Amino acid sequence: MVDIKHQHKTISDIIFQLRKERNLTYANLEELTGVSRSALNRKERGETKRLEFKTVKSIATAFPAHYFEIMECYLEEENRVNTLFEVLEEVTTCKECFSLVPKAAIRILESHNVETEESLHRLFNFTQTVTDDSLKVTLYTLIIKFSRERGVPYYVAKGLLQKYLIERNDLKQLEESFRMGQEVLYYTKFLSREEKITFYFRMALHAKNINKYNECIQLCELGLPLETEDTDLKTRAYLAMINSFSHQKNYDAVEKHLDIFEKINNDFVVVPAKATRALTKARKKEYDVAIPMLQKYLGELGKEYSLHIADELLEIYFQLGDLESIAEILEKGEELLPEHPQTPHKYITVGRFHRFKGFYKLSKGLLDEGIENYVKGLKAFGSVSAMKEKDDCMQELLTYHIKLSKSLELKHIMKLKEAYE
């Protein structure tokens, strides 16, 4: 058998080795590939300097076990930028060839046949058409690196922004992706107005989700003067800013901005404005006003806000020691909890609900049920790497047992350890 795994092969070598290994005539090879026997013969003998990509693709398709190898060899031989883009498009649609994507991109960027900025422009536009996010990140990373090396800050900015917009969606890496987003701040002068709006508002929402309230407010304030339309993104970022003021206990700013928020011409405004008014009253400890409002809105504003309202009510009722009202809300668990939380804030609120329920069950002497709810809470916090909330949850549980001079059973310790890790 002919060895087809040695180094530095060419397309000619592969054609020769596959034909000999399988005892194929040129006529057989023509039938398999659809490429004329004369073209195959000339290439094998080295009489043809280069094959068109469609010919190489036909040969590779006929020998799927060697598809990667053939594409890799072709990348080494080919220098024409348009053809390299054909190869790049092909390998981004073939999962087995994904590792060739950076090689194809580097061949394009390092080509001497095209100006640097034109290569970057074409590769950036191509990357935006790719559907696989991991490949997009790979390509944007190469664009950023190459742009830095060649002193093209315009594409450093564009690449960093697009890479950030993808990586911010990993709920387990929110801190890391936020730090990456902060790098874009040094390049905003190279972004278009629309890109700046997207960046400032997305970063503001991101900051709120990781409890960086000052940053949320500052980023939102950078975006608001640029956006003249009442878009969904602007409206949600504005609400995140209001909530950030609330977390800072700056209730004057909350009420001032709520007045402006309620005038935004967007269907999203009505429900969160009502909920935020009620939540603000609760946080100002105006319970005589807040509790009736929250109770009314609990069943009125829909599932999107019911869990957050329940969370606030539970906080109040625990402070007041109102166990009967606590039990009423906890019984609504299935109605309140989302099947698939979509945001970090929602995951944390789900975790808090289970934590409240766990504490309540323990106070009633229902140890197994209580521990089970603490485990659910830890898992919800863990889904978004909310370490402070996980630690607070464990601390509360341990403090409760120490106070009662009780030790945790091994089965409970194992469940909690697994959920915490």
Strands, helices and their partners?
Blueprint: H1 11-21, H2 26-33, H3 37-44, H4 53-62, H5 67-77, H6 81-91, H7 101-109, H8 116-127, H9 133-150, H10 153-167, H11 174-184, H12 193-209, H13 213-223, H14 232-247, H15 251-261, H16 270-283, H17 287-298, H18 303-320, H19 323-330, H20 333-336, H21 344-363, H22 367-382, H23 387-403, H24 410-420
Explain this structure to me?
The protein has 421 residues and is mainly alpha-helical. 71% of the residues lie in helices and 0% in strands. The protein contains 24 helices and no strands. Helix 7 packs parallel to helix 9, helix 9 (133-150) packs antiparallel against helix 10 (153-167) and helix 18 (303-320) runs antiparallel to helix 19 (323-330). The chain is elongated and about 90 Å long.
Question: Summary?
Answer:
This protein is an all-alpha fold and 421 residues long. It has helices at 11-21, 26-33, 37-44, 53-62, 67-77, 81-91, 101-109, 116-127, 133-150, 153-167, 174-184, 193-209, 213-223, 232-247, 251-261, 270-283, 287-298, 303-320, 323-330, 333-336, 344-363, 367-382, 387-403, 410-420.
